Amino acid sequence: MARYQNVYPYTRTGRGNGAAAGGRRSTGRNDYVYGNVALQPDIRRQLEEEPRRKLSNEARKNRDKAHHMSLGYVAFLVAALCLAGLVLVNFIQLQSEITNMAETVADKELQLNSLKVDNDEVLNRINGSINMEEIREIAIGELGMVYAQEGQIEKYSFDEFDYLRYVGRD
Predict the structure, then answer these.
(1) 7 inside domain
(2) Is residue 155 a contact partner of residue 167, using CB atoms and an 8 Å limit?
(3) What percent of the chain has pLDDT over 70?
(4) What's residue 109's pLDDT?
(5) How far apart are CA 119 and CA 108, in angstroms?
(6) How far apart are CA 57 and CA 129, in angstroms?
(7) What's the pLDDT band for 77 if we cut at 50, 70, 90?
């Protein structure tokens, strides 16, 4: 049975039980200690008490082999490391090229939009400067042009994009 140390340092009579006076009572391994004084484990003694197992020669050789790497394994690791490095460098270069191409495309789109705006402005300026009434007067008066009559209009149909087929009078 386990022995218990008194939780209170003094009994009813007021006398100490030994632990309160600073004395340390040796308790066994399975003894419970109550209060704020815990025993420090003696690790050195536990290590001395535990018997060390001796390793067999085969186990010792296996451990030694596990600690040493063969030349082939080292060469394999170096080759794998170089291959991984090449793949990563290639990946970074491709990422850089993609970024540069995206920036080039963005620049070209800005340039295209600028050219479209400039073209629209020029077209509007040209259309605004044309006087259609003046052109009609010059065409009729100086060049002798007249409006087309009903029988002078010819119709064409577009079946394909590469040629024009005449659908004329029968």
Answers:
(1) yes
(2) yes
(3) 64
(4) 97
(5) 16
(6) 106
(7) very high
pLDDT digits (tens, 9 = 90+) for 11-66: 444 444 444 444 455 555 555 656 666 666 677 777 677 666 777 888 878 887 77
Same domain, 89 and 149: yes
Residues 86 and 35 in one domain: no
113: domain range?
73-167
Token digits of residue 21: 């006076």
Rounded Cα distance between 36 and 89, Å, is 62
**CA–CA distances in Å: residue 40 to residues 7, 23, 29, 33, 50:** 19, 15, 12, 12, 18
What one-character DSSP code corresponds to residue 4? B
Question: What is the C-alpha to C-alpha distance for residues 82 and 88, in angstroms, rounded to an integer?
Answer: 10
Q: How many structural domains compose the chain?
A: 2
Say if residue 7 is in the same domain as residue 39.
yes
Residues 47, 77: one domain?
Answer: no
